[in-house]
Amino acid sequence: MNNTLSEKEIADLKETLKRCSPETVEAAIRFRERHDPEALRAVVYGVIRRYQPANVGLRLENAGDDTSLIQDLGLDSLTLLEIVLTIEETLKIQINNEELKEIRTLGTLNQFLKNKIAGATAAPAAKQYSREHIALVLPQQPPFLFLDTAELGDETVKAGYQVKGDEFFLAGHFKDEPIFPASVLFEALGQAACLWVLEKAPKLLSKEIKTNHIFFATLDGAHVYRKVRPGQQLTFEGRLVKLRDPVAIFSCTASVNGDRVAAIDRLVLAFGEQLVPEEPAVTTPAVTPPPAATP
Amino acid sequence: MPPMRRAVVTGLGFITSIGNGREEVLRNLKECRTGVELFPEFAAPDVPVKLAGTVKGFSFPTAMFEDWTYPAEYSLSREQLRPMTPNALYAYCAMQQAIREAKLAPDLVSNPRTGILCASGGSMWMAYENLHTMATRGVMRCQPMAIVNGIPGSLYINLVSCFKLKGGSLGCSSACSSSAHALGLAMELIRQGRQDIVFVVGAEDCNKFSILPFAGIRALSVQTDPEKTPCAFDAKRDGFVGTGGAAVLVVEELEHARRRGAAIAVEAMGWGQASDGFNVIAPEPSGDGLSRAIKEALQDANLKPGEVDYINAHGTSTPIGDVSECRAIRKVFAGGKVPFISSTKSLTGHGLSLAGAMEAGFCCLALQERFTPVSAHITELDPECKDLPIVTRPIADAPRIVLSNSSGFGGSNVCLALRRWENGE
Questions:
Q1: Paired residues of A243 in beta bridges
Q2: Per the domain annotation, does B1 fall within a domain?
Q3: Does A12 touch chain B (CB under 8 A)?
Q4: CATH code of the domain in which B56 resides
Q5: ipTM surpassing 0.85, yes or no?
Q6: Which domain holds residue B122?
Q7: Per-residue pLDDT for A11 more than 60?
Q8: Residues 6+ away with beta carbon under 8 Å from A190
Q9: Contact (Cβ atoms closer than 8 angstroms) between residue A243 and residue A156
């Protein structure tokens, strides 16, 4: 892919790489214009060299993939941040906090950037949600929120929940043996689907969907395979089967460590002013249940 | 009851428009040489103000610390310089001087009984650069040091880290009385037994961001001749001239200083503070707030008004400020001996948060070296100031007890009382 940089872009790049060697600037231009992977290492080394304190630590010429950026190269955490900011600006990428924690050696840095660049030119990554973010989107709130994390793809939702053991309903479900209720497993799958609908459907349908206008319509083929106990980490996955105003249909599974614990063949969410669509958009042999606990 | 702990000054450091060290400052004070000059940063035709009390030997061509230069006798590592503001760099240099003059060994500098009180308005320039970068280039492009060098606390943040200080650390923020407050509070910490040594630091940037915001309220002089302005108490004064730099005083408990054989310069006898309760900017015209601060300082120092030999006035050279200060002085001293009065700001420019510590440092020099600083550039005293003994020409009088006044926005007034330490005391 060729992309000739404008004079202003080159000037900005030179400003970003002020105090780096001319070779570093050339490599950066080569990378930005032609995505030359060979240039990547030259940029990274050039930026590190510019920030590495004189007479401290191992010189880059003698460094290898397992060279630690902090212990071996003598960079402190703030210098590492300066390096990251300069690399981000030079390569036009973003390195988030989680990714930054993983970068400890020259090898992990190079590998990370390679992956990042490959990823940046391929599909955009799924959007990540924290529990706090999820609570801002969903109408369900603690103590009735069963998603800790979620990521949304174009037609997928994947969410996680750690069964803490102190959930209010476990005290009575069951006496002397806390088991995560099947109804709550289905509820959690519904919440994951709900998140997808609220975040993705409005754009696809060019329609506003209010958070209190989304309901369980149908559960078809709902199965439970294993008991879920406190301490276990649940993974919920949903795939969109069909989206047509006013319903979204998903197939969903819940799993622990890769073992399926529950599944719903067809989970139908309805949205809009009406509580229950009189005529579900999809013909289904199942009866239409009244609105469930989930609004 | 144990005898009261007393505070003395055992070391000074200066990075000011009239000199980057004790000897140079002393010579310029005695010879009445100005530190004010035409400031290239103000050269643009749309800037109505042309003068500043420039800090010599430093340059800050960009906000990037790697572009900065400073006198060769100081040496900072990249890690030390990186979080700094210009005022923190000035303060670092002044701290080095003060530590050397006080002959403080490293284990006394870095000691739980040694604290620091800093005064600065913060680097508005660095704050601007950081926030501008964030606003125009995105949140994640914000510099890692954006908070550390963007907030007024950056002065103590930098100095505590550079000098590995272990005692209390605090910033004072009361506009132009900030560092006078810092010295007053240092006396309290020493008296209360909370610290044995306190570094009192005042420091300000010297650039268009620290000075020119005062142009809008017409507080700055628009004169262009540094041999004529600033001219506190003169009839033709038209506003203050800004300056920056740093001043450091080592304030130490008397017996602590004696035990280690320190050369004692001055006793910090006491201080007073009072607010005008009047206006955000304008001083209360009768000088009521400042007069109460002076009275409180005299009482705190156990002094009678007649014992005071010299007052280093706040005297910024603004039309209303100087008159209000004269009224305050009259309220306290009328009917008895009125001390000699001068404003050293007429030589240095007004250092804002730096002013109190810088001028307390000048008072220490005046007491130690036995001279009375002259109030520069006076050709015709304002009729409102005429009856007071304002020092317009060098005099032979060697002060023994001096007061230093500071007043800040919001009508925040501080008065410090200092006394010459006699040999053999």
A1: A248
A2: no
A3: no
A4: 3.40.47.10
A5: no
A6: 7-420
A7: yes
A8: A216, A267, A269, A292, A294
A9: no
